[in-house]
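Exercise 7 asks you to align residues with tokens for two separate proteins.
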Amino acid sequence: MKKKIAIGSDHAGFALKEKIKKWLQEQGYAVSDFGCFSAESCDYPDFAEKVAKEVAKDRNTIGILFCGTGIGMCIAANKIKGIHAALIHNEFTGRSAREHNNANIICLGARVINFATAKKAISAFLNAEFQGGRHSRRVKKIKRLER
């Protein structure tokens, strides 16, 4: 069974979010869009919060966030307890976010990554599994920092 995906963006990430949403749906994923819903200027923390809270309450949901650089979304999402958001740029960082960090949200910068690269990076993340082992020790230390 494919995981559910919660997505969100600000105005800078809106166009890429829309393309990725359509592509994910074509791949058979259940996608919930938490906004924004236009290219009109808005604030990324509002949408990072909505997606992060959804992911935090449902272990079967992962999140994908888009803004201009991905940085703001990543910072904001990581403020929500239980969220391990990772900024990704390519297949390697997408795969590593899952395999090494057990990320449950990925963030992409629409002004620094194109649609083709975004698809590859997201696919790498979605098809990877947390490797555990030495990485488990490190993820547990991150979780302790949340307390």
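Second protein for Exercise 7:
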Amino acid sequence: MPNPKRRHSKARGAKRRTHYKATAPTVSECPHCHEPKLPHRACPNCGYYSGRVTFIPKGA
């Protein structure tokens, strides 16, 4: 397997990585308490998921 003859510059490596960026997570509203939550997860505020309590939050 051939190896590179010359070293690539830092700018060239940075140009290749311009599209590697983090995306903001999708946030939905809890139907029970209307607080923002991640989709397909129990609400961290009230503990509800799919119409029933899955856990009791520490603040309650």
